[in-house]
Amino acid sequence: MNNNKERYKIFCEEHPEIPLFMQHWWMEAASVGKEWDVLFYEENQKIKGCFVYLLVKKMGFKFIFQPELTQYGGIWIDYPPNITPYQKLKIEKRIMATLIEQIDNLKFTYFEQNCHHSVTNWLPFYWKNYKQYTRYTYQIRDLSDLNRCFENFSGHKRRLIRKAQPHLKVRFDTSFDFFYEQASQNAIANRQKLLYSKELFGNIFEKSYERNQSCLLTAFDNNENMHAGIFFVWDSQSAYYLLATINPKFNDSGAYTLLMWEAIKFSANKVNLFDFEGSIVENIENSYSQFGTIQTPYFHIYKHNSLIFKILIKCFKK
User: Fold this and answer.
1) Which domain holds residue 150?
2) Which of 89, 114, 219, 245 is the most exposed place for a label (fewest CB within 10 A)?
3) Is the model's pTM score more than 0.85?
4) In the 8-state DSSP scheme, what is residue 18?
């Protein structure tokens, strides 16, 4: 039994504010069949900071990643209440420096992590020769007034929703197996491949459903054709859009946009923030921004410890 994991499980139960994708149960669900672990920073035998990670070993190389379908990872710090900005930075430098030293001691070949958007200081990584570039997510940060949320949508999104509502029925009871089958068929029709396995998605679906922290929505027409489906999850503070599938035969039906609106309305009964888990792909960014979202930056941090691997990566990209 991994004692660190057992301690972390208890720690997460005591700290529900730890973001979803860093929670013990999520790492267990998303790392099925793989090796994950956690590092601690402690004071007086109490955990004050942690770093959860997935360890992948291939062809003699050692990689530190996030699990698939896991939007962020990195370091989490348990800040004391009512601290000044200077005290906050002082705590960050101390805790992050210690955890980064432990990370470096893992002797990895390549390190890659997305930080949660609440992390605004990556300098301790920079000082240890890590690099970063900025990515963006898109968020609706106040779900208390759904009428205002809807009015903040672009005119195009509002028209799509109104177009879809009379013709499509939103369901909450579609089975995981049927959803995955439809997603697979839609991927084939688009000459694509699903980026997640049935086992992985099934495990996340089962564990999150047991905890009442996920919802699977689908849209059907009167002929029982599934136009689209989305899956989203939530923690104590935010809901996160995780994945979707759209039948290419019904791209123009408005089903996807309708489902996103239904997901936002559903999430308003759980949390006050809806996170689209943004993309740097131009057309996806354009779609997310039309939901009245706030563009929110986060850090993508990486580091090479092997010149051979760095050369191989450059050759592969070329």
Assistant:
1) 142-271
2) 89
3) yes
4) S
